[in-house]
Amino acid sequence: MGFTLVALPLVLGLLYSANQVNQLSKQGASAIFSVAELINTNQKINNTLKKMERYASQYFVLQEIELIDKYFVEQRALLESTEELSQYNDTQIKQLTAQFSEAIHQVHQDIVKPETALPTTDNQVTSTSLEGLQKEFKQLINISEQLNTRSNELINQQAQAIKNSTAQVSHTLLKSLFIIPISLFIAGFFIILITKPLKQLTLKIQQLQQGNFQQDYDLKEEPSLGFIEIKEINDALNRMIGRLHALELQKSSFIRHISHELKTPLAAIREGTELMYDNSVGSLNSDQQEVTKIIRNSTTRLQRLIEELLNFNIVLDSTSLQDKETINFPEIVEQVLSERTLDIKRKGLTIAKKFPNVTIESNAKQLNVIIDNLLSNAIKYSPEYGVITLTGEVGENQLVFSVTDEGTGIKMDQQDKVFDAFYQGTPAKDYNIKSSGLGLTIVKELLMRLNGNITLASRTKKPSGTTMKICLKSMVNGEQK
Hints:
By secondary structure, this protein is of the alpha+beta class. It folds into three domains: about 1-175, Four Helix Bundle (Hemerythrin (Met), subunit A), CATH 1.20.120; about 220-320, Helix Hairpins (Orthogonal Bundle); about 325-470, Histidine kinase-like ATPase, C-terminal domain (Heat Shock Protein 90, 2-Layer Sandwich). It has eleven helices and seven strands. A five-stranded mixed beta sheet has the order 2-4-5-7-6, covered by helices on one side. It has a two-stranded antiparallel ribbon with strand order 1-3. Strand 6 and strand 7 (about 465-470) form a beta hairpin. It starts with a helix and ends in a 9-residue tail after the last strand. Residues about 115-125 and about 220-225 have low confidence and may be disordered. Pfam families: HAMP, HATPase_c, HisKA. It comes from Colwellia maritima.
């Protein structure tokens, strides 16, 4: 309907303009033909009248039958041309041609005997003097000139009529150009009418991308947006959201339960292993001590994997992403640092902090996981007695937080892969616990849902190191919310 209403004025305008141009073309062709015919007839009359006068004068002097025969031939031709001219639809032309025909007959009567129609014998004589004959032909020439004058006037009228018609058609075509803005207005109206619900569906899909499965917008609430096709898309999207939400809850529930079920026996195993490793239940020989160390490291790794699996479950759990609160960012960082105190002391690391005291509106649970994973990676790849730098700055309506270590850096061919799930790059030196490869994937997914992003910069040449930079666009206290 929209395309029809947009195209209809243009089509109608085009057809109307084509009809006007066609009529102008026909009028011009008719006028040109009529003018050409009028000019040709006048020329024939003038030429024939001259010949007729010459033959009549010569016959009047010489009295030769051949001359009068030629005169009669020219007379008939002159009468035929006059008859053709009298067919022209003009009152004055008709009157002049009638006078012209009458004058021609009068000359004929004056040349021949009244009782003779055509000269056929030698005893034919004239009934007028040469002077009277020339006077009558002068009258014919005078009427002929009046016919020429009137013909020229008619030609000028035809030319003026064509000029007026051309101006009128041109004016009509210019007026028809107003159809273009009208069509553009109709097109714009339908574009707005169609794109408005599409933008709402796009927003709905973006919210779905961020894990919001609680939305259920019905386009029927707005009759102006009630296109059947868009309603069908909306209904299909609602059904898909419901199905995805159900699957999301099932996955989250499964991972949560299986992780807790695994942690319970693991805690007992790790506690027993620690007792054996510390010789709390008796002394162990060197082989037993080595086996206990392997079990102890394996249980530590398994516990870390389960913790990362629980963190990954936070990404899958869409319901936990909807709870936003006002958070003091430095407090979140200090909380993460306190949880990693033992790991930091074990390697003798120094933490350099420089960030503003700013509050943000975000999800504390996910933000804690993000910073913990970044700090964990920095600790993992930092050399002993190295420095980890935590910096933050506010600018362009966002908070930029960076974690920089002094490790060996990430190779260029690995930098695009570190955010892929289960990807494990070059292992850290003197780090026996194997990573699951989910840490940075979790960070990237959570930042995407929190309307943020992450970038990295790494150097493999000395001074080597890696900087992980995150941007959060949810500032409070006069900044962007």
